[in-house]
Amino acid sequence: MPELPSEGRVARRQRRTREALIHAASAIMTEKGVDAATMLEIAERADMGAGTVYNYFGSKDALAVAVLESLMQDLARRIESVTDAFEDSARVYAFGLRSVLDTATQDARWGQMLHRSEVIADAMYRAMGPFAIRDMERATAAGRFTIADAGLNWRLTCHALIGAALLMTKGDLPLAAKPEVITRLLCMTGLGLESAQDLAHSDLPALPAALPG
Amino acid sequence: MPELPSEGRVARRQRRTREALIHAASAIMTEKGVDAATMLEIAERADMGAGTVYNYFGSKDALAVAVLESLMQDLARRIESVTDAFEDSARVYAFGLRSVLDTATQDARWGQMLHRSEVIADAMYRAMGPFAIRDMERATAAGRFTIADAGLNWRLTCHALIGAALLMTKGDLPLAAKPEVITRLLCMTGLGLESAQDLAHSDLPALPAALPG
Amino acid sequence: MPELPSEGRVARRQRRTREALIHAASAIMTEKGVDAATMLEIAERADMGAGTVYNYFGSKDALAVAVLESLMQDLARRIESVTDAFEDSARVYAFGLRSVLDTATQDARWGQMLHRSEVIADAMYRAMGPFAIRDMERATAAGRFTIADAGLNWRLTCHALIGAALLMTKGDLPLAAKPEVITRLLCMTGLGLESAQDLAHSDLPALPAALPG
Amino acid sequence: MPELPSEGRVARRQRRTREALIHAASAIMTEKGVDAATMLEIAERADMGAGTVYNYFGSKDALAVAVLESLMQDLARRIESVTDAFEDSARVYAFGLRSVLDTATQDARWGQMLHRSEVIADAMYRAMGPFAIRDMERATAAGRFTIADAGLNWRLTCHALIGAALLMTKGDLPLAAKPEVITRLLCMTGLGLESAQDLAHSDLPALPAALPG
DNA sequence: AATGAATGAGTGTTCATTCAT
DNA sequence: TATGAATGAACACTCATTCAT
Predict the structure, then answer these.
(1) Residue ranges of the domains in chain A?
(2) How far away is chain D from the Cα of C147, in angstroms, using its nearest Cα?
(3) Among residues A49, B163, C158, C193, which is most buried (max CB within 10 A)?
(4) For B48-77, what is each residue's pLDDT tens digit?
């Protein structure tokens, strides 16, 4: 017996089922909106019975959140693929913030869910937290940021960012305010205003396209 | 007796009711999405009975379309407010196209309905047609465009524009393609490719913020 | 000024309106059933506003009853046209009973309303009463029937007749029982059983076709 | 293990549920008409939740059609019980035609739906087809009828028969025309006119009463 | 008296969720 | 654990009825 099967056959199959479900839900919810997507259609697309879905997700809402988290993890991965080459963790973090704000205001799949901002902020806190917190801690260690509790900082930032995105899509905040939004959020890391501005406005590479589905 | 009562008391009240309905629907549909908005809630917000709504709009869908048209008319008005100062009608038209594409990809209220592109294209054809067609004809008269049937041209353009916006929000077409999209649509007016590119890329002023709700 | 205008211009117009309404309602209710007929459709067919109907009939039900009564008056008139030639009032009455039972079980327009038997019995009591009571009284005067209160007799007969018709259309009573039903109802007039049977089974002429509409 | 379970426990329960639903619907629709019957009332009478009905019938209309088909199957069974003793399949078929026409013009439960003649003709085609087609084919084999495509013949006959019944209940065709209608429909089987008339007018036994409910 | 806009109770239908198998 | 039949709350929509004009 191997020492670390780390995941038995059963667990593996469950994970695959879960992923198939998220995949199917993502496709359908993206295509026709969360409300118009029915649990039965999702279950059938994932080739399983209607009741089975509830063994994996407690409610349609929970499934929608999982879809959202998967979108966010995808975004996080795409950010990673770009920032791998960065040496400055502060820059990685800043790029991440900008990418999130851009995506939230432009990707319809996010927009579909944006009107429930607490939910989305929460999903973002969980899904992107590991990366964001890691970067903040690294940048703190490198003397760039000054952060005592990166988790708290990230939580605040999530709510602020999603709130801003919501205002922008509703037209109550101009898109042109994006750099200012990023700047202020960077200030929360303990960075001085000028450095924050520099980071926010620095010319950053483009994000690779979203993976299909 | 005034010479042009042009609108009786009854007609005036009906128009007001209709507008109150669109106003209420716009607020609620924008806030929580078209599907999540209920007709009863809309009726109550507009301070009327549930059945009354159906004296003005044949279905929830029709009401949603009316909301959309009102958003488009608002956009058209905002475009007018900027382009008043333009001397070149071709430039007015180009600015209009760009503004529509930007709005369609950024304003969540449009996004809510973007997955029914024919409906939205149709609403756009009707709501913005008067302005667009006028500009095309003026530009043709001024020798800038060469268009035989401006109505047809506008219809095609509407479908192409909404189609592109849909692809962009789904991530199947990068936002960076916007100038190219505008260029090609301008080519449909008979403008040469280079002139079209010039117009599409010319530095244009910003649109004033959307009127609240 | 004529001595008996008996009906002024206004009253005449009202009567005409009332009749137009019954005519329209009769056509539509007959065509698609009472429930499927809408008051608005009826009003439009009669070329008047929706509210006007309620100046003439207190409710849709009342209108339906009026339609029914008009059908019954038509039936009564058709019976009269046949029985004019009869010398024996008892035979007229018997023929009337048979005609009503036949019509009630065969004419779809009656069937549409038959499941509310008290209403229909009541309408029948009023609409055909004048004729039936007259015949009963004549037959009594001629020594054929023995009836103290023809009105009461007629009321009982109406309920019994409609009840039987309802049972027959529901299949709970065979159509073959018709003569027996008629016989027993004739007995109520004081006629002996044998005479009643004779009358019920006597070969009677056919009823002329219903007038269209 | 039994050789032919032919129907599992689940399937059996579903069939029972379906039948309970038809039974309840039949009772209520017959009692108060199709329109006045509400789905909730039917569901409650069948002792189940409102939504369950829609797991068995796609719409109220579909349920009404199923009720109709069940009435027709009942009629077919009653015809069978009489014609078992017949030796001549042509006579069986003729008796069937006559029974259908009589029932359609007399049974209120049929009348309730008669104003949608295509639907009823279709239901009749399906519900009674197996018997009618069998008889036509037997009679053809016996040299009485001459029919190439019994299915087609039956389809035409259904529409003609229901059409005639509709005219009769509306009073546009006298009930006295029944024998002629039957005669002409029998001619469609290739029978000569005289033979058809003989069959149509032959003295046939009475149909047993409808089963309750 | 006539009108038709406003009303809201009532109905068909959908669908997230539960639970017996 | 997977299933899908059963459930009932919720919602879009209809239409008889009222009432201000």
Answers:
(1) 1-58, 60-201
(2) 34
(3) C158
(4) 999 999 999 999 999 999 999 999 999 999
Given the structure tokens 């209709």, which residue do they identify?
A: B18
Please tell me the predicted confidence (pLDDT) of residue C1: 47
Q: Any idea which residue has 């499927």 for tokens?
A: C36
**Closest C-alpha to C114, from C58, C173, C166:** C166
Strand F closer than 7 A to residue D44 Cβ: no
DSSP code, position D50: G
Q: What are phi and psi of B208, to 5 degrees?
A: -65, 155
Residues 153-172 of A with CB under 8 A from B: 168-172
Please answer whether residues A104 and A165 qualify as being in contact, where contact means their C-beta atoms are separated by less than 8 angstroms. yes
> Long-range CB contacts (< 8 A, 24+ apart) of D68-71?
D68/D110, D68/D113, D68/D119, D68/D120, D68/D123, D68/D127, D69/D123, D69/D126, D69/D127, D70/D22, D70/D26, D70/D127, D71/D26, D71/D107, D71/D109, D71/D110
Report the pLDDT averaged over residues C95-107.
88
> pTM of the predicted model, to two decimals?
0.86
The pLDDT, as a whole number, for residue B1 is 44
Distance D39 CA to E13 C1' (A): 10
Domains A1-58 and A60-201 in one fold:
no
Mean pLDDT of B150-157: 92
Query: What superfamily would CATH give domain C1-58?
Result: Homeodomain-like (1.10.10.60)
d(CA A110, CA B169): 10
Q: Taking the CA atoms of B148, B149, B150 and B155 in sequence, report the sign of the dihedral they define.
A: negative
**pLDDT tens, position by position, C176-198:** 889 999 999 999 999 988 999 99
Residue of A26, A169, A173, A211 to mutate, interface with B, max B Cβ within 10 Å: A169
What SS3 state is found at A2?
coil
Distance CA D38, CA D35 (A): 7
Domain D60-201 = CATH 3.20.20.70:
no
> Which of C105, C112, C210 has its CB closest to that of D106?
C105
Which one, of A91, A64, A65, A67, lies nearest residue A79 by Cα? A91
Give CA separation, A11 vs A8, A14, A148, D122, in Å.
5, 5, 37, 54
What percentage of chain B has pLDDT greater than the value 70?
A: 92
Q: Identify the H or E element spanning A200.
A: helix A193-201
Alpha-carbon distance values, B46 to B21, B35, B42, B53, C104 (Å): 6, 18, 6, 9, 51
Angle at A19 between CA A15 and CA A24, to 5 degrees: 150
